[in-house]
Amino acid sequence: MVAQNQSADPGFRWMSLRMTEANVGVEVEGEREQRSVAKSSQNSNRETFYVVPTVGFGLQGSVYHPNFFQFDLNAQNGVGWQETSLDVPGGGSRSDLLYLLRYQFNASLLKEKPYTANFFADKEHTTRDYDFFTRATVDQESYGTRVGYTDGPVPFSLLFRHVKEDVSGQARPSSLTENVLAFTAFHESSSGNRTDLAYTFDDYTRDETGSYTQTGVQNSISLIDHKTLGQKDWVKLNSTLLYNQLDSTTTPWNQRGAIPRLSEYFTDHEYLNLRHTDALQSDYNYSYNLQNLGAVKSDGHSASAALHHQLYESLNSTFDVHSQVFSSSGAGSSLDTTRYGIGLNENYTKRMGDWGRLTLGYGGLLDQEQRTTLGQTLFVVGEAHALKDGVITFLNQPRVKITSIQVWDASGSVSYSELLDYLILPHGERTEIKRLVGGQIADGATVRVDYTVDSQPSDSYTTVAHQIQVRLDFFDGLLGLYAHLNQQENYGGKSLVLENINDQVAGLDVSWRWVRAGAEYEVYDSNLSPYRSARLFQNFSFQPSPETTLSLDMGQTWITFTKANRDLTTYHAIARVRMQLTPALALNTEGGMRFQKGEGYDQQLATARANLEFKYGKLAVQAGYEYEDEAFLGELRLRHFFFLRAKRSF
After folding, report:
1. Would you say residue 312 lies in a domain?
2. Is 131 helix (H, G, I), strand (E, B) or coil?
3. Is residue 85 helix, strand or coil?
4. Which tens digits make up the pLDDT trace of 209-231?
5. 469/357 same-domain check
6. Does residue 434 contact residue 422 with C-beta atoms inside 8 Å?
7. Using alpha carbons only, what angle is made at residue 386 by residues 298 and 520, rounded to the nearest 5 degrees?
8. Which one of 12, 14, 97, 529 has the fewest CB atoms closer than 10 angstroms to its CB?
9. What pLDDT digit, counting tens, does each position of 587-618 carry?
């Protein structure tokens, strides 16, 4: 019933409810996983199968008025049967009723007002890819609210979110429960200057089957300020303050007692840019970094001033002076480092008529460093590295104590496991860290590494470095030839373990229509960890018709670590086919293989996936199959997975 005084507003109703969709369907999933260890009886087979009829609906509604309270709900429910079989000592089979519930709920209160509030809740069943060969199943449930004020000089928002997540389909299933509280605010002036403030509180518990249980509380604060000043905004000033504190406790499954870990990170970065003329600019940087991990403390100051000049459009020149003061201490040991020097960079590009383009680059560095040490052991905390397939990554310090290495995610809240997520490979004086395909570290992800090394004596030395790059492109990128030279020579510091480098790279690449290919050879000549590498890549992407796309990506790598007498050979091939067979039927398939061979490296991976989608009117059917085959360090893993999902809407 509509009140008389509200009849002028057609949107007014005490309660409005409209069904947007109703559907029935069925879901079927089956999985078989086999694990075996060479020359061992530690074999296991796991099978899971379920069938669930489903009923779903969609609702839209409002209370009083759509601008007062409005909501959307989409839900899918079902009760079915699940059969689980585990072929291990003490295992067996069991049948259970399976309750399936998925939903998405969103609501807004006073959505047209500046003091709006939003509410959300969802439960979903999805996948997560760490690389092409590693796909995990994620069951996630979350709910929360966001409130804020969007007008005034300082708009702000406050978010609360609760998350329960279960990850399966990997070597180690895991679960995560966390409560997140996040506050954001900003101020933007009429001239475009802006200041952002953010605070996040994260209380979490993470369980990883067969590895550890971890609880923690993380507090993060950031303050970022951007300013432009002067006529034509010729002055730019950026300030960034970041603080992160993590108080966590890790309980390994095979040990008694918990391991506490308290870490702090603080960064202050100041950046000033002056545009003197259109061709001349100068930059000024200052940074302060502080890291604490228990009794280990490290902090450092760095500063630089650079002058940039652009001659026409072809030549860019940069000259800089820089300095750094760093100290680290813990458990009776300390390291104090002072470094200062100058640098020069030149980049030149020249168009060579209609047939080519020449690109030249040079970078030079002259640094003086003084080290003062005390004690026998140096503690390294939170050393950041991006781990990417095909790229060799060394820890910064030589003579690392291998057993001391701990690897964490970028936030420091997730602990990774050797031989499951990463490999540690000594190469003479240097130590390589390598992500393991099939683990939980995504390709290209940044990790933090803690480790210890034997302290080196106090000493000083001078570093002279040169980087030269040459590239010649022919006929609008049809053929490219390039070469890189990286030289680093240290003078003095006879009592220190220092690396002298002469790194030479030569390569070519070809791009023509739907083909791209290339070859590269590198000679990394080092007194600590020399190696030779050769790389080939081939990429084919072809669309024979608007309805069909074909692609094939292949690569081959050969690396020889000459001082460590270790070889690594890697081959990979990934093919994808996407076809729209009829207006109602689409087929997506992909498959790949990866072979890696070498002492401590041997791994074989094969993956194939097929997905068939049929849509006709209000009927939607999706069927798929996944195959995974992995062999690493004598352990074999074979997985088959299929699914069928059908839904009829009304």
Report:
1. yes
2. strand
3. strand
4. 777 888 999 999 999 999 998 88
5. yes
6. yes
7. 135
8. 97
9. 999 999 999 998 767 899 999 999 999 999 99
